[in-house]
Structures are given as structure tokens and as C-alpha cells.
UniProtKB/TrEMBL annotation:
Keywords: EGF-like domain, Membrane, Repeat, Signal, Transmembrane, Transmembrane helix. The lineage of its organism: Eukaryota, Metazoa, Ecdysozoa, Arthropoda, Hexapoda. This is Notch ligand N-terminal domain-containing protein. The keyword tRNA processing does not apply. Residues 1-23 form the signal peptide. It comes from Cardiocondyla obscurior. GO terms for biological process: Notch signaling pathway. GO terms for cellular component: membrane.
Length: 133
């Protein structure tokens, strides 16, 4: 009896104890190209110039992006905070932007990187808001 209790006690004491696990990683988003066919801002108005009968604006936009990572939402709320971070790019071009691998801008890194130190959720959409100056 004492032998059995001693074996069980030793087995319980010698069992490996669980260790804390840390999670970390990087979410990357690579921008390739963007076309603003009608030259309108995020509110649907001409960035510059006037609109023709077809709705195309005569002026050009100065295009930049805001990338916001947040939890899944059925209806995207652009006024709530970005849970996992956000990045606003500098002006990357006008109505047509091509961000191929060999294009370098001093204040812009492509892909956009979001480092994280938490357990990654099951689904996480990205929210893009295009801004024009």
C-alpha cells in the first residue's frame, strides 16, 4: 500500500508542469496597384477640377491610404478604433498608382507590417479607407 502511494506521489510530483506560451507574429499587407477612374475622393466629390457629364473629374487626386485592422464586423464602423492597429501612408501618387516591387518611397514600406503579441483571432478582415488630399 505504501509503495503504491509512494509511486503515485512521485508520478504526480514528477509530471511535467504546463508552461506559459507566448504568441507573436506579423500581419503583412502588400499594396500592388490602385486606380481612381473618376478622380473622386472618399466622399464621392472631385478632388480637384470639375465633373463632366459622365461623372469623370477633370483634376487629379493625391492618393494615400489608411489601413485599419479590427475584429470582424457585419457592418464596418469606420468611426470605431482600430483594435489591432492602423497605418496611414504618405501620398503615394495620383489617380493611378503602381506599387511594383522595385518602386521605393523613402517614407513608405511595402508591405505594410502590423506586428502583434497576442493569440491571433479566427477571422480578421482588413478595412481600407482611401484618402485624397
Amino acid at each position: 500500500m505504501w509503495t503504491t502511494m509512494l509511486v503515485w506521489t512521485a508520478a504526480v510530483v514528477l509530471l511535467p508542469t504546463p508552461r506559459a506560451v507566448n504568441a507573436s507574429g506579423v500581419f503583412e499587407l502588400r499594396l500592388k496597384s490602385f486606380v481612381n477612374e473618376f478622380g473622386k475622393d472618399s466622399l464621392g466629390k472631385c478632388c480637384s477640377g470639375s465633373a463632366s457629364k459622365t461623372g469623370e473629374c477633370s483634376g487629379v487626386c493625391k492618393t494615400r491610404f489608411r489601413v485599419c485592422l479590427k475584429q470582424y464586423q457585419v457592418k464596418i464602423d469606420t468611426t470605431s478604433p482600430c483594435t489591432y492597429g492602423d497605418v496611414v501612408t504618405p501620398v503615394l501618387g495620383e489617380n493611378r498608382i503602381n506599387l511594383s516591387a522595385n518602386v521605393g518611397l523613402p517614407s513608405f514600406s511595402n508591405p505594410i507590417r502590423f506586428p502583434f503579441e497576442f493569440t491571433w483571432p479566427v477571422s480578421l478582415p482588413t478595412l481600407w479607407i482611401t484618402l485624397h488630399i
